[in-house]
Amino acid sequence: MADQPADDLKTVVLNHKHVSLGGRMVPFSGYSLPVQYPAGIIAEHKWTREHAGLFDVSHMGPSFLVLDNKSGDSEADHAAVAEVVEPLICGDIKGLKPGQIRYTLLLNEEGGTYDDLMIARPAAAGWGGALYIVVNAGTKEEDFQRIATAALGQATLNRSDHCALLALQGPEAAAVIDAIVPAAAELGFMHYASFDWRDTKLVISRSGYTGEDGFEILVDPEHAAAFWDTLLADNRVKPIGLGARDSLRLEAGLPLYGHDLDETISPVEAGLNFAISKRRREAADFPGAQRILAELGGVLERVRIGLTVEGAPAREGAAILDQYGAEIGVVTSGGFAPTLSRAIAIGFVPPDHAAPGTRLQVLVRGKTQAAEAVATPFVPHRYVRKASK
Amino acid sequence: MTKFTKDHEYITADGTVGITPYAQEQLGDIVYVELPKVGQKLKAGDEAAVVESVKAASEIYSPVSGTVTAVNDALSGEPGLINSSPETDGWIFKLALDNPSELDGLMDADAYAQLTA
């Protein structure tokens, strides 16, 4: 529990805040980050489900891709910058409305997944020809390299991962934001915009990875501490570490890159068909389209499922067995679900073992335990499904 | 007199084994405990139990050699007892020692306090 991280770890802008709050700092994706605060993972998890949790996710990769030569026609410039990234992904970026965010996937030629990411179109017409792109921490160097290379001579990728990226998640998040940046509380789910706060601008999106309503806020390094303090001054808000972030996203049934998604796993196997946009399917113009379209047609070797597990948690790497004991798959994320007070897991099995209700087993420390395929999310999502004003 | 291992188990004079307050603090919220069986024979250093936090599983090793005479079944329903009272209600198992002189090889409270300082 050293206050000073090891030399080879990067620190986030708000490192001093985490240390002074008693955060237990651990290495994560090359950064020193709080896995929990003194309250502990279960209390932090439950607070987020009941109130509002504040997460520092500054290790992630926020960036802006900006067209080099804008025409000034917002629609034409958006189409032009969308064309730069679309060859890398399976999402329809051209079709985004102003302010809209899309969850999409960076794919390889074999249809495996380099990363899952968010791509958004700015709300303001003056920002036409730019995209707000947020990638995962563990893959950001490669992702940024891929995007910048694809954009060469057409657009420039500006990294913003020197800033603070905060997530405020939970049923009281909107009321908290409403008291600080009132206009942001009007954002629709999966929309973002830029807002004035004091003498800076905040890039705020209504999004998150906990299954709760919430916001993700990009703030410049000079204002990060003041904004963090302002959020925490509201007694509905508590700081939440990465441990609870993981248990929250697991309950929400959301895949974690590097675990439930990797370079061999396709979006169809991962159950992310919604992220393969209709226009792109019809055009078959994304990496790995041959495999992915065949899988959409039903040629599928394995699929991602949720499991409830009796007894000890089945962690990543635990074998999944059918009810007769034959090994058929593997757990890719697993742990204890604080909301459900039981062990749950995400894993991959052949499609004929994936139907909810299928009786399965998991192998934990050499012993079999009963498990069952279940529909995800394990805990219902509570996103706010209202249109943006 | 209670003795301690470098792996943060304690063993009391009557052979009760658990993990120290320092260890439970490090592990965080305990969500599952796998107990040994009564009658099980253990050598010093053998894996005797598994304590699972939200994040990870940790093995609990037998501090000395002996036979398990009791296990704390209350932990099956309430594993968090290890967090709230590791030295009392959160005990894990009791041992009948093969050779009480093995205790001499373990740390006393002062030495353990220095280890975790």
Q: What does this molecule look like?
A:
The complex is a heterodimer of chains A (389) and B (117). Chain A has 389 residues and is an alpha+beta fold. Chain A has three domains: 10-58 and 163-251, 2-Layer Sandwich (Gyrase A, domain 2), CATH 3.30.1360; 61-149, Alpha-Beta Plaits; 303-379, Beta Barrel (Elongation Factor Tu (Ef-tu), domain 3). Helix content of chain A is 22%, strand content 31%. Chain A has helices spanning 15-20, 41-50, 74-85, 140-151, 173-180, 221-232, 242-251, 278-283, 289-296; strands at 10-11, 24-28, 31-36, 52-56, 61-67, 101-107, 113-120, 130-135, 155-159, 164-169, 192-197, 200-205, 214-219, 237-239, 303-309, 319-322, 327-337, 342-349, 359-364, 367-374. Chain A has a six-stranded mixed sheet with strand order 11-12-13-10-4-14. In chain A, strands 15-18-17-16-19-20 form a six-stranded antiparallel barrel. In chain A, α2 (41-50) packs across α7. Chain B has helices at 21-27, 74-77, 81-84, 109-115; strands at residues 3-4, 9-11, 16-19, 30-34, 41-42, 47-53, 57-61, 66-71, 93-97. In chain B, β2 (9-11) and β3 form a beta hairpin. Chain B is globular and about 35 Å long. Classes of the chains: A alpha+beta (389), B alpha+beta (117). The A-B interface holds A 24, 35-36, 40-43, 45, 243, 246-247, 311-313, 315, 335-336, 338, 343, 365 and B 28-29, 31-32, 34, 50, 52-57, 83.
Q: Which terms summarize this structure?
A:
heterodimer, A: 389 residues, alpha+beta, Gyrase A, domain 2, 3 domains, six-stranded mixed sheet, 9 helices, 22% helix, B: 117 residues, OB fold (Dihydrolipoamide Acetyltransferase, E2P), three-stranded antiparallel sheet, 4 helices, globular
Concise structural overview:
With 389 residues, chain A is an alpha+beta fold.
Order of helices and strands of chain A: EHEEHEEHEEEHEEHEEEHEHHHEEEEEE
Mean of residue pLDDT values of chain B: 96
Instruction: State the helix count of chain B.
Output: 4
- Tell me the CATH architecture of the largest domain in chain A: 2-Layer Sandwich
**Strand percentage of chain A:** 25-35%
CATH superfamily of chain B: RNA polymerase II/Efflux pump adaptor protein, barrel-sandwich hybrid domain
By CATH reckoning, the class of chain B would read Mainly Beta
Count of individual beta strands of chain A: 20
How does the major sheet of chain B shape up?
A: 6 strands, antiparallel
The percentage helix of chain B is 10-25%
Unreliable parts of chain B: none
Shape designation of chain A: globular
Overall 3D shape of chain B: globular
- Specify which chain pair forms the largest interface: A-B, 20 and 13 residues
In the residues of chain A, how many domains can be counted? 3
Strand order of the largest sheet of chain B: 1-2-3-9-8-5
Query: Which whole number gives the mean pLDDT of chain A?
Result: 96
Instruction: Fill in the CATH topology of the largest domain in chain A.
Output: Gyrase A, domain 2
